[in-house]
């Protein structure tokens, strides 16, 4: 089957469901976006997986499962979002070992993406899923919370301007130790912005 590769374009608050987030995946060649509604925990887990330098004091569920996969001699080769039924996406984890034996596991799409970012595994979908659920939209700066390109500046986090870089680092360590990952991600963005300005 001819799969279409997707990249993670961003995570934003869902406009349609209270307390939920929208994970925006995009096919780069066409610019077609695939919005997937995910929960707060999954949004946090995906964000932490993308921010490689934030390490929670205890492993999250996706970190634990990632460790298990590598311990038994497998790696995540890719994930495939293969179907959408009544607005629900269906995905597979494609695992392989050193003998190139393949293991396919059914997974929620949010969990599959959270695993993909931990293994730097590619995300694919089908032409049919893109046709049924794909949309063309332009993400404005205030809608994109995570734009994962080196050249783009992270959004300004209000309220942290009064702190020095050293104080921000201390607040980051405290937030990680308290497992307050939303605050930790905000602090990480502010620190990166400051360091970029210094450079």
Written description of the protein model:
- With 199 residues, the protein is an alpha+beta fold.
- The protein has helices at 40-50, 61-71, 109-119, 127-133, 165-177, 181-198, and strands spanning 4-13, 21-27, 32-38, 74-85, 88-97, 102-108, 123-125.
- A seven-stranded mixed β-sheet has the order 3-2-1-7-4-5-6.
- Strand 1 (4-13) and strand 2 (21-27) form a beta hairpin.
- The protein is globular.
- The termini are far apart.
N-to-C order of helices and strands: EEEHHEEEHEHHH
Summing up helix and strand content along with how strands pair, one would put the structural category as alpha+beta
Which blocks of ≥5 consecutive residues have pLDDT under 50? 140-158
Tally of separate helices: 6
Mean pLDDT: 81
Q: What is the count of β-strands?
A: 7
- Strand arrangement across the biggest beta sheet: 3-2-1-7-4-5-6
Please give the share of residues in helix.
25-40%
How large, in whole angstroms, is the Cα Rg? Answer: 18 Å
Strand content: 25-35%
Tell me, briefly, the overall form: globular
Question: Mind summarizing the main beta sheet?
Answer: 7 strands, mixed
Distance between the termini: 46 Å
What descriptors fit this protein?
6 helices, 199 residues, 7-stranded mixed beta sheet, alpha+beta, 28% strand
Q: Can I get a quick summary?
A:
It is built from six helices and seven strands.
What are the SSEs and their pairings?
Blueprint: E1 4-13, E2 21-27, E3 32-38, H1 40-50, H2 61-71, E4 74-85, E5 88-97, E6 102-108, H3 109-119, E7 123-125, H4 127-133, H5 165-177, H6 181-198
Parallel strand pairs: 4-7
Antiparallel strand pairs: 1-2, 1-7, 2-3, 4-5, 5-6
């Amino acid at each position: 089957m001819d799969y279409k590769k997707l990249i993670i374009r961003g995570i934003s608050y869902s406009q349609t469901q209270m307390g939920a987030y929208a994970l925006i995946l995009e096919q780069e060649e066409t610019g077609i976006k695939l919005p997937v509604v995910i929960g707060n925990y999954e949004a946090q887990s995906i964000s932490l997986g993308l921010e490689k330098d934030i390490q929670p004091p205890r492993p999250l569920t996706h970190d634990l499962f990632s460790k298990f996969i590598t311990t038994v001699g497998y790696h995540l080769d890719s994930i495939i979002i293969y179907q959408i039924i009544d607005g629900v996406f269906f995905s597979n984890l494609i695992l392989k070992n050193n003998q190139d034996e393949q293991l396919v596991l059914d997974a929620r799409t949010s969990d599959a993406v959270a695993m993909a970012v931990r293994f730097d595994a590619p995300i694919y979908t089908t032409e049919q899923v893109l046709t049924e659920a794909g949309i063309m939209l332009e993400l404005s700066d205030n809608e994109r919370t995570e734009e994962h390109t080196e050249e783009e500046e992270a959004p300004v986090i209000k309220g942290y301007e009064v702190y020095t870089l050293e104080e921000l680092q201390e607040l980051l360590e405290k937030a990680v130790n308290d497992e307050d990952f939303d605050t930790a991600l905000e602090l990480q963005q502010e620190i990166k912005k400051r360091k970029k300005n210094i450079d």
